[in-house]
Each structure stands twice: as structure tokens, then as C-alpha cells.
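Now for one protein, fold included:
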Amino acid sequence: MTRRWGGISTHVLLVAAVLISVFPFVWTVVMATNTTTDIYHSPPKLTPGSHLLDNIGNVLANVDFFGSMLNTLIVACVTTALVVFIDSLAAFAFAKFDFPGRRVLFGLLLVFMMLPLQLGTLPQFIIMSQIGWVGTLQALVPPALANAFGIFWMRQYISGGVPDELLDAARIDGCGFFRQYWNVAMPLMRPALSFLAIYAFVNAWNDYIWPLIVLTDPDRLTLQVALAQLNVGHNTDYSMVMAGVLMASVPMVAVFALFARGFIAGATEGAIRG
């Protein structure tokens, strides 16, 4: 009986957690499909309306939505691919190779992970100015590549998920560092790489502060900066803003669905083997 009530309480807590997590997205849909007047109505409407197309039309009339989305998609895809490669390669070296200063460097990495990202804004801008990248999309990529959390996450996964025996066998067969990484470790890292890809893409897609600072060309704005232009103080049309937010969320949902399948499948495969 106690076990039964324990199971019921666990399910109730899980359902409550899901509802709390989903509510912001549902509320975004409700606001995006109604008018600003409906949003201010008391009590507020909790059901979707019929003004979604009108709000989307207002978004497209006020900002270059698809141009900004293309810019953001290019930056996010390039950043994600490079983060997955560079962070996993660095993590593989930290996890499976003993080199001088490894512990010190990894300790410094953990320290940097605790520092606010805003501390690097001024040095990054100076560097981008010196190499002539201010105002260009490529200025958005380098600051995100050596991600401290990504390296830490991959290092922890590789330490337990890539057996040393496989690497020893690869060395006996004449495999060097990169072949061990690419041919032996990479296939075993798919669940962790899927999570890292989701993490990197979402961060790049939602980045606002750095693009706002470094992008000076109105034709090269990213989506978050472009959507911020919809907020015009006291006369803000919140239904239009929420429609833009809803449209901007679609690619993230698609990327999550794409990589989450690999993450779950890889994790399940590892559990079955264990």
C-alpha cells in the first residue's frame, strides 16, 4: 500500500512539473493568437484566439524576420558544429591523455566556467575591432567555441563512457591521437554530443547581448535583436511580440526534436548494454 501511494505521489509530482514547464509556452501561444486588448483583459483569456495571422503579418511588416532568421540560423549552425568538434576534442584530451599541466588547466577551466560571460565582452569587442570583424556575422562565432561547460560535460562523459581498453587496442593497431578520437571515441559519444549540440544551438540562437553590441549593420541583425525592435515602450503590441517569439521558437523545437532522439536512443542503448 505504501509503495502504491509512493508511486501515485511520484506521478502527481511529475505531472505538476510538466504542467509548470509547459505553461510558459502555452501562454505564449495564447497571447500570440489574441490581441493586446485581450491580454490586458481581467480576468485574462486563457484560450487561443483567432488573430495569429494578423499578428504574424504585423511582425513581418515591422522587422525583416526571415532575413534575421537566416542570419541566426547560419551563426547557430556554424557555432554548433564547431562547438561539438572543438569541445569534444579538448575533452577527449583531458579525459584520456596524461600531459603536463593537465590538472592545472582543467582547474582553470572550472574557474572560468564560474565567471560571468559579460566579463569577456570588452576584450572580445577589442579583438573583433582589431581584426575588422565588427558588424559581421563571423564575429558572433569565436566567443562561443571554447565553451567551458561543454568541455567539462564531455570530459565527464568520456571518462566513464569510453573504455581505456578500446583506446589501448587502437594504439596497438597504430592509431594516433586523432584517429582514436574520430574512429573509436566519437561513435561512443553520440548521446553526449547530441546534448551538447542542443545546448550550443539554443545558446547561439537565443544570444542577445553580444549580437546587440557587435552587429552594426541593420541588414545583418540576428533574430533576437530584430525582435527586440518590436518593443517600443508604452505602445508595445504584446500580441505581435509574442507572435514573433512563437515564430522564433519553431527552429529550436525542431532542433531539440532532431537531437533529442539521438540522445535518448544512445542513452537507452547504453542502458541495455549495461
Q: What stands out?
A: The mean pLDDT is 87. DSSP finds 13 helices and no strands in the chain. The two ends are 32 Å apart (CA to CA). The first helix runs from residue 2 to 32.
